[in-house]
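Render this sequence as a predicted structure.
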Amino acid sequence: MRRSIAIITALGLSFTAAAPAAAQFSTAVNHTVRVTYQESELQTEAGIQAIYTRVENAARGVCREIMLSRPINGHATLSRCSTEVLADAIEGARIPALTEYYAAVQTGPAVEQEIASR
């Protein structure tokens, strides 16, 4: 069965306390992207990794669109945006295996290898 993860951004809420250049985000910028996956992908490490990669790429793409429409402090802001949007998307998906994989990626290769060996 085909399912999707919604990547919804409402930037401005999290960036307003940042540096003055980021204050330009004080009016919310909303984007929604859906990342589709097959339930069968959740059964393997490779499938979970593939879903994660699609979500990560979609988060980066959404943030690039935002940066193009609201040019501000370049790479640092794009990186921060991507990180926050990815974290929100993973949390919002409520898929335990994907959340576990995300946590492993955030903590480094040793934990990622431990999960892969299960």
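Summary. The CA atoms of residues 9 and 31 lie 5 Å apart. The radius of gyration is 15 Å.
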